[in-house]
Amino acid sequence: MTENLMPKEKAAILMVALGKDFSSKIYKHLTDDEIEQLTLSITGLRAFDKETRDEVISEFYDLCVTQKYISEGGIDYARDVLVKAVGGDRADELIGKLSAALQVRPFDFVRRADPTQVSNFIQNEHPQTIALILSYLEPEKSANILALLPEENQAKVVERIANMSVVSMEYIREAEKILEYKISSIGQEENTSVGGVDTIVEMLNAIDRSTEKSILDKIEMDNPELADEIHRKMFVFEDIVKLTDVDLQKTLKEIDNDVLTMALKGASEEIAEKIFANISKRLHDMIVENMEYMGPVRVRDVEQAQQTIVNAIRKLEDAGEIEIARGGAEEELIV
Questions:
Q1: Where does the Flagellar motor switch protein FliG C-terminal domain start and stop, copy by copy (predicted)?
Q2: Tens-place pLDDT, residues 136-179
Q3: From CA 263, how far away is CA 113, in angstroms rounded?
Q4: Does residue 14 carry a pLDDT above 70?
Q5: Longest Cα pair distance anywhere in the chain, in angstroms?
Q6: What is the rounded distance in angstroms from the CA atom of residue 283 to the CA atom of residue 264?
Q7: CA–CA separation, 111 vs 139, rounded Å?
Q8: Comparison of pLDDT for 78 and 140, the residue scoring more
Q9: Who's near 133: CB < 8 A, 6+ residues apart?
Q10: 94 three-class SS
Q11: Could you give the 3-state DSSP secondary structure of residue 35?
C-alpha cells in the first residue's frame, strides 16, 4: 500500500495523522528548508485511507525502534535484535532505510579515536586514502589529525580532498579493509559526495594559523588557482561577529563608508549590531540614513562590498595586526 509513496509523502501523512498539536512540536525541531518541504508535501497531499495511514505509522514506529537499537549498540547489535524480532529480510530493510536516512558514515571509529593515535595509524597510507578518511570527519577532528601528519604530506592530502567529489562505495570499502576495521556503510547508495573546497575551508578555519599558512604556501606553489579559491572562502562575512571589538575597529578604519553601507544592506541583525557598536554615533546615523535612501540594490553589489571587507580582514591578519578566532579549545591567556 505504501511502497509507491515517496518518503516526503509518508512524512506528510504522518504529520496529518499525528494532529496539529503534536505536529507543531515536531516543526520546532526542523530546519527552515525541512519545514518548507514538509509543508509543501502536506498541502499537495492526496486523500489517503485508514489502511495507508496505519502502515505509515507502523513503519515510522519500526524505524524509531531501529534507531534506538543502533544508538544503544551500533548497527550489528541493532540487526541481531531485529532479526530475532522481525526476521532477517525485514531487519535488513529497516536498517537500510534508517542508515540511508541518517547517513551512517564510514570510518566511524576515527570519530571516537584520539587524533594522535589516528594520525600515527594513517600517516603512512597513501594521501588519497588519508584524504578520504578526513573527508568523512567533523572539520575540527580533521584539522587536528591533519596538523599531526608529516608536513610533506599535509598539502598533498588537502589538494586531494579539494579535488574529491564522488567516491565509489567499492573504493571506500577497500580503504576500510586496509584499516582493518568493521565499519557500517551508508545503506544502498552506490556513491557518496565527500570532500571539496568547502571541506578544506572548514578544516583550515579550525587549524592553528602556522599550520594553515604552511599548508596554503605549499598549495600556492603547486596549485595557485586552488589556493586562491581556498583563500576567498577562508573567512566569510558572517564571521565578523567572531572578531574582537578592537580588531573590528582596526578593520573598519580601512573600509570606505560607501562600501560599509552597501555591505550592511544585506547583513544580518547580529552583524549590523556588532558593527554599529564599534563605530561613532555620527557614522551610524549616516549609514542608517543612506541605507534608507538607497532603495533596492543588486545582490552581487552587496556581496562584492562584503567581500571587500573580508579581504581587508584577511590582509590585516596576514600582517599580524589582528587575530581571527580559530576553532577548537580556547587558548589560555596570561594576564
A1: 218-324
A2: 788 888 888 899 999 888 999 998 888 876 666 667 767 766 66
A3: 43
A4: yes
A5: 73
A6: 13
A7: 11
A8: 140
A9: 107, 110, 122, 175, 179
A10: helix
A11: helix
Per-residue CA distances from 177 to 62, 172, 173, 232 (Å)? 31, 9, 6, 37
Domain ranges for the chain? 7-71, 108-187, 235-319
Strand-pair partners of 168: 191
Most confident range (mean pLDDT) of 11-15, 176-180, 301-305 is 301-305
Q: What percent of the chain has pLDDT over 90?
A: 15
According to CATH, the topology of domain 108-187 is Annexin V; domain 1 (1.10.220)
d(CA 333, CA 335): 6
- Kindly tell me if the per-residue pLDDT of 183 is higher than 60: no
Q: What is the pLDDT of residues 17-74, one digit of tens each?
A: 887 777 777 777 777 677 767 776 776 677 778 888 888 888 777 767 666 655 666 6
| Separation between Cα atoms, residue 182 and residue 107, nearest integer Å | 9
Q: Which residue has cell 551508508? A: 186
Q: How many CA atoms lie within 13 A of 145 on its CB side?
A: 28
Distance CA(79)–CA(90), nearest Å, equals: 10
Helices (H), 103-238: 108-112, 115-122, 127-135, 139-148, 151-163, 169-179, 197-206, 209-222, 224-234
Give me the amino acid identity at 187: G
Question: CA-to-CA distance for 131 and 202, rounded, in angstroms?
Answer: 14
Q: Write down the residue that cell numbers 589529525 correspond to.
A: 145
Look at the domain 235-319 and name its fold. Annexin V; domain 1 (1.10.220)
Place of cell 524505524: 63
108-187 shares its CATH topology with 235-319: yes
